[in-house]
């Protein structure tokens, strides 16, 4: 990211000035100074700058350096650069900064930053990055990196970013995390995504980890979205936990659908346990609506107690081939609901049997035929 950003700014700056020589005024200068303290500290710094303009072109830049030394052994250094350019095709600017410091007992700190932006006839772009690291007097450590960028043009826009962090403690603790995400949009639609992962450990064997991700898409023909999450953890005395979740949805001019699921399990320090699962979904279109779900759970206690449960449910409503029929609902059955393929033969009203069965709970086939005839003759 840093190399690409630097090259992009340099290439744009070169394009701004190419084509004809620059004739105009130039300027520049430099300065430096230093100072000392009666307690033993010192300071020194310098800077320089320069630029030129004329004929519709211009540029300017500068740099600086600073250093400090304390009376107790600490020190710090900072340096950076800045620059900007403009021309008939656009403008660009950028900067860098580096900082380092050290203190007594081995403590250190370092940081680097880069930023840049450019704008031209066909669009604009900006980006930046930063990295940081530090150490403590008792073995602690920390590091972090960030970067991001965005661009836009007559054809659309895009943006993205990422971040990673890690740390350790004086007694073996640790932590790490990563994040990233992005988005794109254009005349034909848009999309976005993101993810995150985290892990940590404790001084007494505890642990934790988690992952998340999700995304979404939209265009003139419809939209869709999804997401998932996984989590696990352990305790100092053998406890454990794990969980998973996921879900999604889709929609278009012809209908929509959604689903989701979740599973969980846990154990205790004295043999206790629990597990559970859930899932469900729904579908809708011009011909009807259907939904279904299930849940199961089991548990065990410290003294041998046990528990288990299962639930099922579904519902559907719509228009059949020979007229309208009402809602069909099934709940708490071991077999799957009508319309979800749990039977050995297709469900009534969908044409799978040689002889059509009674339609959705009528007392007899004759009553079904009579209702059908009345519906057909109602308009005469």
Task: Characterise the protein shown here.
The protein is mainly beta and 380 residues long. Among the domains are: 221-344; 351-380, no CATH class. It is built from two helices and 19 strands. It has a 19-stranded antiparallel β-sheet, with helices on one face. β9 and β10 (174-186) form a beta hairpin. The radius of gyration is 34 Å and the shape is flat. Mean pLDDT is 83; it is low at 1-22 and 321-367.
Brief summary of the model shown:
This protein has 380 residues and is mostly beta strands. Among the domains are: 221-344; 351-380, no CATH class. The chain has 2 helices and 19 strands.
Topology:
Elements: H1 2-17, E1 25-36, E2 42-54, E3 57-69, E4 75-87, E5 90-102, E6 108-120, E7 123-135, E8 141-153, E9 156-168, E10 174-186, E11 189-201, E12 207-219, E13 222-234, E14 240-252, E15 255-267, E16 273-285, E17 288-300, E18 306-320, E19 323-331, H2 365-377
> What share of residues are in beta strands?
over 45%
Question: Strand-and-helix sequence, N→C?
Answer: HEEEEEEEEEEEEEEEEEEEH
Detail the poorly predicted runs: 1-22, 321-367
**Count of separate DSSP helical elements:** 2
* Helix-and-strand structural type: mainly beta
- Radius of gyration over C-alpha positions, nearest whole angstrom: 34 Å
| Secondary structure: helix percent | under 10%
Give the end-to-end Cα distance, rounded to a whole number of Å. 76 Å
The major sheet is characterized as: 19 strands, antiparallel
Form type = flat
List keywords for this structure.
380 residues, 19-stranded antiparallel beta sheet, 19 strands, 64% strand, disordered N terminus
């Amino acid at each position: 990211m840093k190399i690409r950003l630097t090259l992009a700014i340099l290439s744009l700056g070169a394009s701004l000035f190419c084509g004809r020589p620059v004739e105009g005024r130039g300027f520049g200068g430099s300065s430096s100074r230093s100072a000392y303290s009666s307690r033993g500290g010192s300071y020194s710094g310098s800077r320089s700058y320069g630029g030129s303009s004329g004929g519709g072109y211009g540029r300017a830049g500068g740099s600086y350096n600073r250093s400090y030394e304390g009376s107790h052994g600490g020190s710090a250094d900072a340096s950076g650069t800045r620059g900007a350019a403009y021309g008939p095709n656009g403008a660009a600017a950028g900067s860098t900064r580096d900082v380092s410091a050290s203190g007594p007992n081995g403590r250190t700190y370092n940081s680097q930053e880069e930023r840049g932006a450019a704008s031209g006839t066909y669009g604009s772009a900006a980006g930046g990055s930063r990295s940081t690291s530090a150490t403590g007097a008792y073995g602690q450590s920390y590091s972090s990196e960030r970067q991001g960028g965005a661009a836009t043009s007559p054809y659309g826009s895009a943006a993205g970013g990422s971040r990673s962090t890690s740390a350790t403690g004086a007694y073996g603790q640790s932590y790490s995390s990563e994040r990233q995400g992005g988005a794109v949009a254009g005349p034909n639609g848009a999309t976005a995504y993101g993810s995150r992962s985290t892990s940590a450990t404790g001084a007494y064997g505890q642990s934790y980890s988690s992952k998340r991700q999700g995304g979404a898409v939209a265009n003139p023909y419809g939209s869709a979205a999804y997401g998932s999450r996984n989590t696990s953890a352990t305790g100092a005395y053998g406890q454990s936990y794990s969980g998973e979740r996921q879900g999604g949805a889709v929609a278009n001019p012809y209908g929509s659908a959604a689903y989701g699921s979740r599973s969980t399990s846990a154990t205790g320090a004295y043999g206790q346990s629990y597990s559970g699962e859930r899932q469900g979904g729904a579908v809708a279109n011009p011909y009807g609506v259907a939904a279904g779900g299930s849940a199961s759970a089991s548990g065990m206690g410290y003294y041998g107690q046990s528990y288990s449960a299962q639930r099922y449910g579904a519902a559907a409503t719509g228009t059949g081939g020979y007229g309208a029929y009402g809602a069909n609902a099934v709940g708490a059955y071991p077999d799957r609901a009508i319309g979800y393929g749990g039977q050995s033969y297709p469900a009534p009203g969908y044409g799978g049997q040689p002889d059509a069965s009674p339609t959705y709970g009528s007392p007899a086939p004759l009553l079904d035929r009579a209702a059908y005839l009345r519906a057909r003759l109602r308009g005469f």
